[in-house]
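Morning!

This is the sequence you dropped in the shared folder:
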Amino acid sequence: MTSTPRIEGLQPKFTHVHDTDDGIPFIPVRSQRNADGSESHVWEKWVAFSVEPLYLALFARWDPGMIVRHHGHYSPHTITVLKGSFTCGDVELGVGGHIELPLGASFGPFVAGPEGVELYEVMMGDPRSWSDDEESIHEWLAARGAVQLPDPPIELPGGLEDLRAVFAKGAEEPGE
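The structure's back. Tokens below.
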């Protein structure tokens, strides 16, 4: 008889990007001040975040014009555009566009389109990010009259350290 990895009692978990009563809120994870004084954010809804084994699946909403630095992740990462559009470097992606980021590769900077963008993302391992290009984000922000704001606080599961502060050099503190 062949054994299976089945664990008695484990069941599938269901959620939807538009659920408001599933107990999983959209949280801000990145912020910027735009040329007109308004603020834009990246909002994420972590629908599956496990530490053993380590992975993350999320829905993301980016406000129009939101810019995210050139970066990579400590795991393979996929992104699918559900609504709106954004650019990854010089490549524009609309609804149905997909990016596969192999472990060890980097991508971006990203700029959300005029209507913003909604994404579904999966990181198959450690979802935290790294960057070896700290300067390009400042060029992209300056070209659009935007200023990177400090990252909103987040709570990661399982004692994972939030590594975003490593990339906060030059981020404006509130009131500056």
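Headline: Residues 41-154+163-167 form a domain with the Jelly Rolls fold (CATH 2.60.120.10).

More detail when I'm at my desk.
O.
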